[in-house]
Batch of 2 targets.
Target 1
Amino acid sequence: MQDMPSLQGRRVVLGITGGIAAYKTPELVRRLRSGGAEVRVVLSRGGARFVTAEALAAVGADVADDAGHGMPHIDLARWADIVVIAPATAHLMARLAAGAADDLLTTVCLATEAPVCVAPAMNRAMWQNPATRANHAALLARGVLFVGPGEGLQACGESGPGRMSEPAEIAAFLERLWGEAGALRGLLAVVTAGATYEALDPARGFTNRSSGKMGYALAAALADEGASVVLVSGPTTLAAPPRVQRTMVISAIEMRDAVLAYRDTMRLFVGAAAVADYRPEAVSPRKLKKEADTLTVTFVRNPDILAEVARLAHPPFTVGFAAETEDLEAHARAKLEGKGVDLIVANPIGEAGVGFGEDRNRVILIDKDRTVAWADAPKTEIARGLVREIITRLRRNAPS
Ligand code: PMT
């Protein structure tokens, strides 16, 4: 294991709730302690069904529980530099969102002034349920930090989002939180990525060649700087970056609704998605039959998500992309002004090896004062550069 100097001397209250992933928590305790952190565990009744107090004590944690063992809630709440809940069940998230204080762990969470960090673990349908989505949004809005969940095969045999992040990922998240990176700590960023898909009938629809690579690289780079990142993604096979909350959508209207759920809380919006400007006016419930020689489809305008965000009463710092086949700079500047955004990243369509679907991109940054062209580079590198630009601008705009 790598050295984790940023964990040295940190006091971590680890809350364990009732999920199968609780069996991994002795490994988490071991990692945190070998990085120099002190760990006190609050073992809920549910958690105790999956891991024993003895196993946690054996790796060096003090253990408190609802039976009155260990420190009382106020002492734990004051002692903590952070409260980490891993695994956090859907029920725990609901109780946190409601402000419940009906056991030791929720009482500590309510009483502490330290940050609370949640590592969710649940069945994918429970994670995607609108009730859990709403609790997640409410907790994010209150500044609760999230690590994971990851995606993959679950204990119930299903596959999808809801796996608890691995102990190494949780430890790395805390290290980053307290380490040097973290210029965007505490800032909620919403990023759109990929193409939207506008259905014509149950079998067919209209989409474009965006792979999502640019938006996913940006989401990862923002998370690396400590931002809480919500990635609203069109259909893609890309995996969600670590520490990023991903919401999958299909159409532009779904993407808009997913973005505007954060209208009051996001402080940064990055529109990297290639959103369809139009959708078929009517979606046939049945597969269209090959009858006539020609087929005419009427399209209607989709909402412009970027423009709507930029026009909010209290807009976040807003970054848009512009993909153009010609007059890149002129069209992009028109978008900057027309949509009222803070920064436009213009990229060409149709140049070999860059842009749509490629691993590399070539961009021109345009704001109200200047235009700066960057050499082509991997999207991951461009994303890190863009995040540095965003940090500079946010600092410039910050009230002194
Ligand atoms: O996904 P990749 O394969 O990695 O490719 C990356 C990319 C080329 C798709 C990306 O870098 C990019 O340019 N994204 C924006 C593409 C686009 O649709 O540009 P536009 O000029 O049509 O839109 C301008 C801006 O308005 C974009 O920020 C777009 O997200 C936003 N928009 C557009 C239409 C709409 N209805 N709502 C929007 O929010």
Note: The domain at 11-181 is CATH 3.40.50.1950 (Rossmann fold).
Target 2
Amino acid sequence: MAEVILKNIHKVYEGGVTAVKDLSFTVRDKEFLVLVGPSGCGKSTLLRMIAGLEEISSGELRIDGRLCNDMAPKDRDIAMVFQNYALYPHMTVEENLAFGLKLRKLPKEEIRRRVGEAAEMLAITPYLSRKPKALSGGQRQRVALGRAIVRKPKVFLFDVPLSNLDAKMRVQMRVEISRLSGQLQTTMIYVTHDQTEAMTMGHRIVCMKDGVIQQYGTPMELYKRPANRFVAGFIGMPPMNFLPCEWLGETLMIPGAGSTGLRSGDFQSGQKTLADDGKAPKPMMGVRPEHLRLERASDGTGGTRTGIAAEVEVVEPLGAETLVYCRAGAHRAVARVHPDLAVGRGDQVLLYPEAAHMHFFEGEPS
Ligand code: ADP
């Protein structure tokens, strides 16, 4: 049962920078948890505190039931995989994999067995006699993973491990790590600034900003019910569209770009269209690109139609879908449309947000 419990964890660096503020969450046994957020939000600091590489200023860290605040890293039974691989350049792949086990004086036969198993699992058996410099970035990353796997730790920690790889290799390794996590059935904590990795790999996500948890939940919870505008804009690619809005009587208008055609009765009671005081309408609407229907203004019945009036600026055909970037008055919005929709730069279009998938936020800067 390698559960990791963080309770009111706080970190102030020497010199006074507060990197992590009163943070609490639990990583369940065998869970793949992703810590995600922009650079500087405190993810690595948090991971390093769990690893024992950084002192915890206050709060409690428990791994497998034991209080670990002051426990030496080697006694925590965790393995960490870094971005820069940290392989020993003068050792072969096999020696790199075996090194930690030799230090711990495991029997030779056991070392050989574990190294063989890990190499098979990661498809690096043909490279066992090579030195790291004779490997590609992806192969080195596999060796770094292998070095963690052979130790059979209670918890794996990953610190932005894929950011050095090219785009194609990153996708491959992402799938590979997810597959490994299913196979190994070990608790994993994975730090990244990449929302796609968070969405695709995590059983659950902790989304952070400025050392504070913004939301903690499954990828789809964060995607469908973002707790605030920061999470709404951070999770999802292309990001959610934000457009200032105002109610004209019962109708939702986009100043300078016309009417959405939606009325207050079109929204469900759970969708908070009003500010906390219950009176003022929230001034910012959010809608994801796939929930913004796009029609050419020249189609249909012309002048009588409502919809947000926009002009197409860029069309990005991606094969399975097309992204259409538009300007609506002083604002910009992107719609994800069917690849067969004939639309080009300079076209006048109408955008229709789907009421059931809209979010409303206070007008704070993102
Ligand atoms: P992230 O991993 O999300 O990019 P970090 O955990 O590296 O963020 O950093 C969080 C904050 O702590 C940043 O403001 C960073 O400048 C600061 N910080 C990180 N390491 C140190 C350090 N050793 N001394 C002082 N401040 C640090």
Note: The chain is about 25% helix and 30% strand.
